[in-house]
Amino acid sequence: MQWHAQFAWLGDAVASDVLIEADGERITRVAPGVPAPPGAARLPGLTLPGLANAHSHAFHRVLRSRAQAHSGTFWTWRDQMYKAAARLDPDSYRTLATAVYAEMALAGISCVGEFHYLHHRPDGAPYDEPNAMGEALIAAASDAGIRITLLDTCYLAGGIGRPLTGPQLRFGDGTVGDWARRVGGLRDRTDKAGRPHARVGAAIHSVRAVPREQLGAVAAWAKENEAPLHVHLSEQPAENEECEEAYGMTPTRLLAESGALGALTTAVHATHLTAEDIGLLGGTRTGVCMCPTTERDLADGVGPARDLADAGSPVSLGSDQHAVIDLFEEARAVELDERLRTRRRGHWTAGDLLAAATSNGHYGLGWPEAGRIEPGAYADLVSVALDSVRTAGAAPGHVAEAAVFAATAADVRHVVVSGRQIVCDGRHLLVDDVPAALTAAIEAITAEEPA
């Protein structure tokens, strides 16, 4: 297969008239400055590698508009989230997630990291197939044409020293050993079942949800299986205070002492950190996933992304609770939030932010062979219009800046994942009428809500 890009971001610069060739799912040749050969598919505008959404809770998409209709805090928002979680079963979750992942594809996302903890029935009893909910998400990603890293989450407590209750019951496996056996079965099945679009990793929900004495076992499972390990970290000051009171240390220090930090680990949010925390994360090359649209929607705060990157932590991006699904918005927010925090401009280049949206995210999800336009990489291509009302008039030589600081998900025109085109002229080729699919899935889940 051949594509000819008007412009393409090649990791360190933008090139023009770029011929991209692939054999199956992998790129075999990239040649800038080449006229379009007959038969090559044209990619007008700026072509980027596929974007990586490194942190997603697919079912949170139900809360869009509903959560924004109320004031409160992260903790009052969490009550709404629990109500949505209680209504899902494997069939409804697959239907919803397919629509959500199709929305991601339309936004240029070729791979999602699904932080998955809706494991069991609402009363905590396992389904006949213990991984029915995880299987639904893996199937949904296939239905929508994108890759997935299912970050199967260990969630054992309702807070430090407190049991799971109410809607949380379906999150728990009882012990870390039971969690490891269940997720191990899912990983083995995924590896053997010919599902090349899916990989299985691990997650520690938070230091609130996994007791100190069991953190090390989750980290050990991830290391033994060379699997990515993600963890919600210091999203709220209350989490830090609770951890300090119980263990006499910050959540970051607790994770470090449990062997949970390292190059295969990604800390999500990392908002309220001490200088020592930043040093621990950067010194171990632990990645950090920033989710700015969620962090501001939930009034979490602004994390020290620049300080973390300077310390050695690669930064990736996620849409988390999906207040919007737009990695261009997430990328520029990293820079714009930093400007508000410091009252200075220019902390990140457009190339830095594109790396956060592409190669850094794929690496943190266990797909190091994705996120770049080069031979050997997955043939994941996203074309961004340069003639929309947002991007028109981009200065010559600054089309990357136009994409990062002005484009939105609505400017994505074509998406290729693993050599297969799944979006053409802004239309999803596998899911007919994505807005209608989202509406139907969400209305089915919320049908019993009061008007």
UniProtKB/TrEMBL annotation:
SUPFAM superfamilies: Composite domain of metallo-dependent hydrolases (SSF51338), Metallo-dependent hydrolases (SSF51556)
Protein name per the record: Formimidoylglutamate deiminase
GO molecular function per UniProt: formimidoylglutamate deiminase activity
KW Ribosomal protein (keyword) present: no
Ranges where the Amidohydrolase-related domain occurs: 48-421
NCBIfam families registered for this protein in UniProt: hutF (TIGR02022), PRK09229.1-2 (NF006681)
EC number: 3.5.3.13
Taxonomic source organism: Actinomadura syzygii
